[in-house]
Amino acid sequence: MTEQKQNQLVIDDTVYETKLTRKFRLRKVYEAPNPKxxxxxxxxxxxxxxxxxxxxxxxxxxxxTLEAMKxxxxxxxxxxxxxxxxxxxxxxxxxxxxxxIVFE
Length: 104
What we know:
Number of helices: 1
């Protein structure tokens, strides 16, 4: 069995000595979501794209229709901006977290 070294962990100005588990040491580092990227929130099929590259959109404006499990989900913009690029086409199958639209 390999010896684990002690690590210092600081919580609310208190220093703790602890051993970090292998799972914790190998965890994926958190990456904040990019507000200029729209990702698929569920796997499904893109049924209709309502915007074009270069088009300005307002928060809450409809962007596309994503069909999943026989339900049509209207995907809206979460920001005011301009559509830079559309990464999918109508009829295309998308996976969860796949990049769909890039905003400027």
